Amino acid sequence: MKYLLLKHYRGGPTPAVDYPPMDQWTPEEVDAHIQFMHDFAARLKERGEFVDGQALAPEGAFVRYDGEGRPPVTDGPFAETKDLIAGWMVIDVESWDRAVQLAGELSAAPGPRGEPIHEWLEVRPFLTEPPTVTE
Amino acid sequence: MNPPLLRELVPAVISVLVRRGADFPSAEDAVQEALIRALDTWPDDPPRDPKAWLVAVAWRKFLDATRAETSRRGRELAVEAEPPAGPAPATDDTLRLYFLCAHPTLPPASAVALTLRAVGGLTTRQIAAAYLVPEATMAQRISRAKRRIAGLPLDQPGDLATVLRVLYLVFNEGYGGDVDLAAEAIRLTRQLAALTDEPEVAGLLALMLLHHARRASRTGPGGRLVPLGEQDRSRWDTGMITEGVAILQAALARDRLGEYQAQAAIAALHADARSASETDWVQIVEWYDELLLRTGSPVVRLNRAVAVGEADGPRAGLAALADVDSGVPRYTAVAAYLHERAGDLEHAAELYAEASRAATSVPERDHLTRAAARVRGLLPP
C-alpha cells in the first residue's frame, strides 16, 4: 500500500517543539539534519519501501479558470497564513501502522543541539485501483 | 562489444536506411528496435560485423513496419526487394542528423531527446531514466518531435548554433539513471568536432572537458556542493584539463572568437591556478567583458560581478552588481557572498537565507542554508 508523507513549511497542528529556522542553526546542525534525511531515504530504498521523494520551492501561486477567452486568475505568492507544502515522500509499505512508524522516525530528524525537531508530518493513504476479486 | 561502440554505429545505420529510401522517422524507429535487440542478444551472441548486423535487422524491421502500414491502407507493397548496401560515406550524413535532431523548430527538451536517441544511440528507456520521466512520456515526446520535422529534407545546411545549444543542455543536465549525460555530451561534441571545421565546436568541447575535469571535487559527502574556491584541486583530472586547454588554444589561434571559446577560456584560467588564491581574476574579468560584449547576457553580467569582486575587492564587486537585474537567478546568493567578503556579516546572513529560499536545486538550497548558518556563527552573540 502506498502512502504519501507530506512535509509542510507551515500549516498543520501547532508545533510540538519551538525551534528557529534552519539558517539560524550551526553549520554542523544543518549538516546533521541533511545527513539524517539522506540516510532515512537510503534505508527505505534498501528495504524496498521507497517510491519517490521531491522537495518543493516555497514560491508558487494558486491558479484557477476565469471563463472562456480570459487568462487564468492567479492568487499568489502564497499568503503568510496559508498552508505551504515543502515536499513529499511516497512509500510503499505493508500497513498503515508501518507508514505511521516511518513518519515518526522521519519526524525525529535532528535540529538545534541535535535534539529531534518533532516536526508534524501528514500521512495520507493513496486511493488504489479496484481489486479484481471482490467476493 | 560494449554499448558506447554499438551506439557510435547508430547514426550511420540510420543514414543507410534513409539512403535506401526510408523516411527519417521510420528509419529512426527501425534502428531503435534493432538497437534494443542488439543490447539483448549481443552479449551472448556477438555478430562478426556489428554494423552489417544492425543494418540488416533495422532494414527488416523497417520493411515489416512498412508492410503492416501499407496493408492497413490496402495498397500495393512498394518496397520489397532489399537493395544493395552500397558504399557508406557516413560522415556527412551524421552531421546532417545533428542538424535535423536539433532543428530550430523543435522545443529544446524534444531536440535533446531526439539527439540522444538518433545521434547518441540511447534507448528511450535510458533517456527517460536520465530525465526522470516515465518511458511512455519520453516515447511520446520523441515521436511528436519526429512528426514535426518529418517533411524536412535531410540535405540542407543546418543551424550549428542550435546544435551546440542542445549539446550544452545535455552536458549541463549532469547524470541520472545508468547513463552519464555529461560524458555522453562530450562524446557527441567530440564526434561533431571531427565532422566540422568550426572553432566554436572546439570551444564547446574544451569548455565541457575543463568543467568535467573538476567533477570529482564538486561534491562532498552526502552530495553536498563544494564551491570552486574550496575544491580539492589535487582531485581535478589533469589529463582532461591538458586536452581541454590544447583544444582551446588551437581554436583561439584561428582568431574567430565566440561565446563558447570565451567561456572555455575562463574555465582554463581556473584550471590553471594551483590554488584559489592564485587565480588570475584580472584576466577572467577581461574575458567576462568580452563575453558581455558578445551576448549582453544578464547571467554573464552577474558572473562578471563575482570576478570583479575577486580582482578589485568586494566593494568593487558590489558596484558591478548594481548594474545587474536583481531578478537573475543566483543574484541574491552573489550579493550575499560579496557582502560577506566586505565584512557586512549580518546583512550577508540574511541574504544567504533569502537566497536559500529562492534556490532551484536541493544541493544549492542546502549549501546556501549552511552558508547562512556559518555566517551567523561569526556574528557576536
What this model shows, in words?
The complex is a heterodimer of chains A (135) and B (381). Chain A has helices at 27-46, 96-107; strands at 2-10, 50-55, 62-64, 73-75, 84-92, 121-125. Chain A has 135 residues and is of the alpha+beta class. Chain A has one domain (2-62, 73-125): Alpha-Beta Plaits (2-Layer Sandwich), CATH 3.30.70.1060. In chain A, strands 2-5-1-6 form a 4-stranded antiparallel sheet, covered by helices on one side. The mean pLDDT of chain A is 92. Chain B has 19 helices and no strands. In chain B, helix 2 crosses helix 3 (50-72), helix 5 packs across helix 7 (135-148) and helix 6 crosses helix 7 (135-148). The radius of gyration of chain B is 24 Å and the shape is elongated. At the A-B interface, helix 1 of A face helix 18 and helix 19 of B. Chain A: This is YCII-related domain-containing protein. Chain A: Pfam families: YCII (PF03795). Chain A: Belongs to the YciI family. Chain A: It comes from Marinitenerispora sediminis.
Features:
heterodimer, A: 135 residues, alpha+beta, Alpha-Beta Plaits, two-stranded antiparallel ribbon, flat, B: 381 residues, mainly alpha, 19 helices, 68% helix, 0% strand, YCII-related domain-containing protein (chain A), Dimeric_a/b-barrel (chain A), YCII (chain A)
Summarize the structure.
With 135 residues, chain A is an alpha+beta fold. Chain A is 24% helix and 26% strand.
The CA-CA distance between the termini of chain B, in Å, is 64 Å
Give the low-confidence spans of chain B.
Answer: 75-84
Q: What's the rounded overall pLDDT mean of chain B?
A: 90
Give the H and E element order of chain B.
HHHHHHHHHHHHHHHHHHH
The counted number of beta strands of chain B is: 0
Share of residues in helices of chain A: 10-25%
What summary fits the major beta sheet of chain A? 4 strands, antiparallel
Spatial strand arrangement across the major sheet of chain A: 2-5-1-6
Average pLDDT metric of chain A? 92
The residue ranges of chain A in which pLDDT falls below 50 over 5 or more consecutive positions are: none
